[in-house]
TrEMBL record:
Ranges of residues in domain Lipoyl-binding: 170-252
Origin: domain of life: Bacteria
GO terms for cellular component: cytoplasm; glycine cleavage complex
Record family assignment: Belongs to the GcvH family.
Name of this protein: Glycine cleavage system H protein
Cited NCBIfam families: PRK01202.1
Pfam families registered for this protein in UniProt: DGC, GCV_H
GO biological-process terms attached to the record: glycine decarboxylation via glycine cleavage system; protein lipoylation
Species annotation: Eubacterium limosum
InterPro entries for this protein: 2-oxoA_DH_lipoyl-BS, Biotin_lipoyl, DGC, GCV_H, GCV_H/Fam206, Single_hybrid_motif
Top-level taxonomy: Bacteria, Bacillati, Bacillota, Clostridia, Eubacteriales
Amino acid sequence: MKKDFCVLPCNGLDKFVGSLTREVALKLLENGDHEMICPVLYHAAEKRYRKALAEKPLLVIDGCNTKCASKLAAEKNLKVSERINVSESARERGLPLTDYLEMDESIEDFVNALAEGFESKPDEGEASVFEMPNPIRYRSFSKGKFIFKLPESDYYFNENDCWAFVKNGIARVGVTDFVQQNLSDILFIDFPEVGREIAQFDDVGSVESGKSIFELVSPVSGVVTAINTALEEAPELVNESPYEAGWIAEIRLEQWEEDTEMLIRDEAYYEIMKRKVEEIEI
């Protein structure tokens, strides 16, 4: 990846992962003509970074799953091009997370590997050429004033209320209408990293509303190839169009035949959804 970025790291300097995040950001600045966005200064003097943000794509580096940097970007309506989650990367590499940062060889190796891995990552996932069926026919089930919709065909579901639509070896995944109505107004989407390998039933992002956070459980296994960047500025698309414009990510399939053994087709999931709707108080 040869682009230069604005780099927005988290500011948790009193914590190990916050300090580690800053080290990763500084290493990236050594390797390219990137520009650091200080979250504290950005709050106080937003104009200082306006020109840089207009000229360069934004890389957000979160230290932990609180994702303060991502939330700051969402609060300021900044378009995020790339994300790194340091604590997730540390766990994947078996690096223990302690209460304080002590720069030893293992920490330096981790920082170098994470920065170099980002710089060398193929530039993929910026645009999707995936085409959904048009039109999509729906069946519906109502309870009180609420109407729950479900596509009549071509979608696969898991019991975690997540869906997959598959075309040409790529699965587009998202959450069901049942989920978005339970969450109410959706405020923030946490996306998986493009290039990340996903096993079936791994978490592949989350959807956050004022009421709760819903973890998206992947219906399929494979490699994330794209995220729905439109949701960064308009997360409400998940409320408005959960099966179409509100998709979360695209995954290149690796063992689709095996995955289908654990998935549910439209009619069967419709009965599951009806049962769940009947069980909730509206």
